[in-house]
Design goal:
Elements lengths: L1 H15 L6 H4 L22 H4 L4 E2 L5 E4 L6 E2 L2 H15 L4 H16 L2 E2 L5 E2 L6 E2 L3 E2 L6 H18 L2 H15 L8 E3 L5 E3 L11 H18 L2 H17 L22 H18 L2 H15 L1 H18 L1
Antiparallel strand pairs: 1-2, 2-3, 4-5, 6-7, 8-9
Helix pairs in contact: 4-5, 4-6, 5-6, 5-7, 6-7, 6-8, 8-9, 8-10, 10-11
């Protein structure tokens, strides 16, 4: 009961009182980066400018802290730190020297904070409890964190050729590709589809946005190394996404995940899905991703659909969390 009260207080503070919260970092407008390259490693695929201009709390070394309020308070989030670094990398490539330093500072933080899990694999831990399909206890790791961390470190190595970034990247990829039951982030379903799980819970829930962001990290490994092992691995994950998208389609909106009682995506995550699918289309040349993105875009143009999705999502959170 106490956990639920703390959760409701946190939600009330963020959504109703509009105080600074973790949402201040996450919920900007998702946009494709027009500077991104798809044949060679370059600027990241989403702009992330709103993340780079985050106005929340930082520690004395300039590392962003997200304010979760309640008993969680201000915390380092490795996903946020990686995406903050990627936003600054994009700005660095647009000739903002101060952003180049921030990009390296975030990369260094990730190198220094890789930790071994109980299976001996290196992960970026979240050192706070989280509410997702029940209570996820600290410390917990995430396929999303491993994937976006790799996206940052591939670029840090590409710019500096310093082996510490390369070594950390390879440590992170080992846990990304390892099976969940061996301390990793990948799950193989009964159809032998390969999934990267954002949240390591059982049964796996297949959060779509986290999976796709993690897959971008696999593609970055290929672009950096040109090793066809990574291209083959990327293709396996892409096949899973392509063959499963119909399961995320409600007929008027997209689902956030594929858990037993599926959760609709919020308007923000629905827009994010659209942007991510268009990026996948650019990476793969597969028209299907553009077709589904266009379909989901038109879902979002219907105001009735948007209202239904918002109300449903709010009710789901209050009842299930």
């Amino acid at each position: 009961m106490r956990n639920r009260i703390n959760y409701l207080k946190r939600i009330f503070s963020a959504y109703v009182l509009k105080k600074e919260s973790q949402l201040s970092f996450w919920h900007g407008r998702p946009e494709i980066n027009p500077d991104a390259t798809y044949n060679d490693l370059g600027p990241y695929y989403q702009k992330f400018y709103y993340k780079a201009f985050y106005k929340g709390t930082f520690d004395d070394k300039g590392i962003p802290l997200l304010n979760y309020h309640g008993t969680i308070g201000k915390q380092y989030n490795p996903i946020a730190i990686a995406q903050y670094g990627l936003g600054h990398y994009n700005l660095c490539k647009r000739n903002r020297p101060e952003s180049c330093k921030v990009f390296i500072d975030m990369s260094n933080f990730l190198v220094e904070h890789l930790e071994k899990n109980e299976y001996g694999l290196y992960v970026w831990y979240h050192h706070f409890d989280w509410d997702y399909r029940g209570r996820v206890k600290s410390p917990w790791y995430s396929g999303l964190a491993q994937g976006v961390g790799i996206s940052l470190l591939t670029r840090a190595y590409n710019e500096t050729h310093e082996n510490r970034y390369l070594n950390a990247m390879h440590k992170a990829e080992e846990s990304l590709f390892a099976p969940i039951n061996k301390g990793g982030c990948t799950y193989s379903d009964i159809h032998k589809n390969q999934w990267i799980e954002e949240m390591i819970v059982y049964p796996p829930t297949h959060i779509l946005n986290g999976f796709i962001w993690a897959v971008f990290g696999v593609y970055d490994l290929y672009l950096l190394t040109k090793d066809h092992f990574y291209l083959k691995t990327f293709s396996k994950y892409v096949h899973t996404i392509e063959s499963s998208l119909i399961r995320y389609d409600t007929g008027f909106w997209s689902f956030y995940d594929l858990s037993a009682d599926k959760m609709l995506a919020s308007p923000f995550y629905h827009r994010l899905h659209i942007v991510q699918l268009r990026i996948l289309g650019k990476m793969t040349g597969n028209r299907y991703f553009f077709e589904i993105a266009d379909k989901w875009y038109w879902y979002a143009q219907n105001e009735f659909n948007k209202v239904i999705a918002t109300v449903y999502k709010a009710g789901f959170k209050l009842i299930k969390y």
